[in-house]
């Protein structure tokens, strides 16, 4: 099979042996696979794939057709449309994964959308609801709202009855984010807004002092991205006075049972909204698998609204 | 009535009018009332009492006898032995409080112990269990284990089946803390211990970097005291990789319903242990109310094992 492959800190597309599904596993023919910031870091050599995932094929989310099933698989048949968060290896023509990681692709969802859905929506849902316990009526700030997780977070919070504010640095992206249901602000104006019950922080440490200032009593900050820096100065007295908490999280390092649990929550809470057309997956650009290098360049250039996705026609 | 009173940033004992219980309130004759670090800060003018509490009479915990009840009180009768966390005013011969804040003093518990129990044990229980979700078998670090909240935290965590480590700076205090059920370590040696699932941080910001280093995956840090400093540098990437969280909390500012809820949890989970003799309240020194100034000097001097308490014989 063909696969995006890390060779000397660059992405090339090379041949690999087809993987074979083991007990409880399914073989998926990739139709679409999104790029994520962690892929870029992995290419640079700083974020090795977890044990059990291929070290040289990036990709943490996949959508495609089941083409074979291993012994003991109970839920899926060849021909089923599935999507999943995985530890790595998704940017390839074929991928083997445990059947409990997969969720069905709703009718009417395109492959392009499905390939950009799993990582962003699972990350945002886990952070907003499983960790931060977001409740109807609460005020949410999505800090860095124009990217993959940001656009997912805005839509999920709005669908749950929260009041959503999105901070977006690039003025050109603000109308797009507003169209998803958020009041959109310049991050430099944050101190004039709030208080917020939940903050989804996708940019990093430089935002944390202002985040604490605009956090409500009982507020929760979920830190999911630190592209702008990881060393934050936190005023612990403010954290105490507000009876607040700060979460950090990643999906990739979680064991099978935790990833499968997150998949079940997505199936219960988010797929019905997708099926009803209440949630969309903004895709800023799609490239054939053979042009994976260009897709990485596009991702690296920034200024995106939503996802960059690889497609595989086969 | 007589009461410890803040006059020009010092504690003196002066006369005040007796308070009168309103609807749903009880009048308690104080028998014992513990000192807490927040009292010292309030005397210095930096921590005003919450609305509804006297601004000039300190004291956030009380034990005593009900001497009168207001209209609508259903649970208590004159003569009942009660104790409670309150917003202020406890270091006085009489205090009015809402009946839902009080819990019964178990038979066999002395007034001295009861006066030092509510704030420390409610704070420690709330942080370890309600916030951090401590589970049987987990490893706990109590950072600053010799004080009031520290000795409470060690005993509660041990009683819940956790493995407890206490860090204690003063070597002279370490055997006392060990007698409560903790492995006791020098805070400077922390990096050789752990990983810990839950850290109860009672000292402050200088400990946070080492705390993050010794925190387990899914670890929770509950920050309750910042006497050594509040400005902490936090590595958000470490927080993400460990899928960890940091809580800050105080009891004093909580509204009636939150304080009453905390009291119910203490009643369910901690008072049975007190009644069974499985928990003790270490009291390092007790002073009559008229000598409140000396009690504050003793508290300020440090090097305590457990509580400093005021007593009122009347």
Detailed description of the structure:
Chain A is α/β, with parallel strands linked by helices. Chain A folds into two domains: 2-117 and 254-311, Medium-chain alcohol dehydrogenases, catalytic domain (Quinone Oxidoreductase, Chain A, domain 1, Alpha-Beta Complex); 120-248, Medium-chain alcohol dehydrogenases, catalytic domain (Quinone Oxidoreductase, Chain A, domain 1). Helices cover 27% and strands 29% of the residues of chain A. Chain A has helices at 37-43, 111-116, 118-131, 148-159, 174-178, 208-214, 236-241, 256-269, 271-275, 292-301, and strands at 2-7, 10-15, 25-34, 61-69, 81-85, 94-98, 103-104, 139-143, 163-167, 183-185, 196-201, 215-223, 231-235, 245-248, 283-288, 307-311. In chain A, strands 3, 4, 5, 6, 7, 15 and 16 form a seven-stranded mixed β-sheet that branches. Chain A has a six-stranded parallel β-sheet with strand order 10-9-8-11-12-14. In chain A, helix 3 crosses helix 4 (148-159) and helix 3 crosses helix 8 (256-269). The radius of gyration of chain A is 19 Å and the shape is globular. Chain A starts with a strand and ends with a strand. The model of chain A has no long low-confidence stretch (mean pLDDT 95).
């Amino acid at each position: 099979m063909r696969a995006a492959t890390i060779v000397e800190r660059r992405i090339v597309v090379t041949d690999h042996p087809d993987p074979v599904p083991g007990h409880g596993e399914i073989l998926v023919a990739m139709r679409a696979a999104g790029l994520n910031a962690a892929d870029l870091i992995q290419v640079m050599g700083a974020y090795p794939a977890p044990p059990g995932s291929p070290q040289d094929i990036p990709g943490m989310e996949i959508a495609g057709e089941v083409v074979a099933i291993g012994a003991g698989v109970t839920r899926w048949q060849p021909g089923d449309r599935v999507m999943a968060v995985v530890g790595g290896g998704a940017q390839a023509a074929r991928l083997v994964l445990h059947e409990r990681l997969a969720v069905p692709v709703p009718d009417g969802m395109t492959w392009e959308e499905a390939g950009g859905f799993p990582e962003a929506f699972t990350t945002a849902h886990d952070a907003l609801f499983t960790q931060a316990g977001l409740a109807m009526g609460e005020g949410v700030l999505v800090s860095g709202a124009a990217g993959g997780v940001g656009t997912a977070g805005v839509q999920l919070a709005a669908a749950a009855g929260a009041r959503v504010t999105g901070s977006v640095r690039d003025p050109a992206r603000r109308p797009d984010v507003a169209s998803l249901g958020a009041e959109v602000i310049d991050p430099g104006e944050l101190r004039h807004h709030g208080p917020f019950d939940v903050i989804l922080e996708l940019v990093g440490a430089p935002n944390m002092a202002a985040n604490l200032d605009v956090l409500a009593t009982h507020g929760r900050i979920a830190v999911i991205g630190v592209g702008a820096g990881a060393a934050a100065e936190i005023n612990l007295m403010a954290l105490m006075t507000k009876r607040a908490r700060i979460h950090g999280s990643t999906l990739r390092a979680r064991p099978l049972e935790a990833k499968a649990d997150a998949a079940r929550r997505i199936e219960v809470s988010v797929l019905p909204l997708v099926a009803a057309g209440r949630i969309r997956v903004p895709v800023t650009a799609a490239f054939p698998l053979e042009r994976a290098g260009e897709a990485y360049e596009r991702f690296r250039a920034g200024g995106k609204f939503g996802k960059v996705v690889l497609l595989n026609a086969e």
